[in-house]
């Protein structure tokens, strides 16, 4: 079975991101020509990736897809990894269409990653808790979501291949600052509950309605 797909992008335009996002959109249009694309901005200040990803899934659900791809607007997966993830996502788990990450900037640094592109059925996104919108700005939301998905759905599957993320400036990445500290504390709580379903559900239940 070839699943129907909707692709959601958490997205707020900035001058340094426009060219990269155009490449990403064009890539998905070529790779998944029959898919719908939605752009989601929750309106938070600063930009809230967690809330915008949740919004992207809700917007994608309008198209009743079998599978949603929630992709950062600066990231492209390998074709083989995406194909494998789309097919496997019908199993009810969380899938990443890569197992290595390449930051394409001045140094093209490879590394690991727990976010960037999520592939799953829409109902699975919510069964895994979605994303905690208490994370402000950038930092911690991917690791927290990965811990919640592991606790509630089973360990996410990383399919072989590289994802490429285009360098850009302009994000609020003030790691270690007073503003960022609540992100870190919340992330640590999620990580501690990774193997405790009841504890994870209690953390999720704290979220504002």
Would you kindly provide a written description of the structure presented here, covering whatever features stand out?
37% of the residues lie in helices and 19% in strands. The protein is α/β, with parallel strands linked by helices. The strands form three sheets. It has a four-stranded mixed sheet. Strands 4-10-6-7 form a four-stranded mixed sheet. It has a two-stranded parallel sheet with strand order 5-9. The chain starts with a strand and ends with a helix. 41% of the residues are buried.
What is the element layout, followed by pairings?
Layout: E1 5-10, H1 18-31, E2 36-40, H2 49-61, E3 67-71, E4 75-77, H3 79-88, E5 95-96, E6 100-104, E7 109-111, E8 117-120, H4 122-127, H5 141-153, E9 157-158, E10 162-166, H6 181-192, H7 197-205
Parallel strand pairs: 1-2, 1-3, 5-9, 6-10
Antiparallel strand pairs: 3-8, 4-10, 6-7
Number of helices: 7
**pLDDT < 50 stretches:** none
* The number of domains: 1
CATH level 3 topology: Spore Coat Polysaccharide Biosynthesis Protein SpsA, Chain A
- Average predicted local confidence, pLDDT: 91
Helical content class? 25-40%
CATH superfamily: Spore Coat Polysaccharide Biosynthesis Protein SpsA, Chain A
Q: How large is the radius of gyration?
A: 16 Å
The span between the termini is 37 Å
Instruction: Note the beta-strand portion.
Output: 15-25%
Strand order of the largest sheet: 2-1-3-8
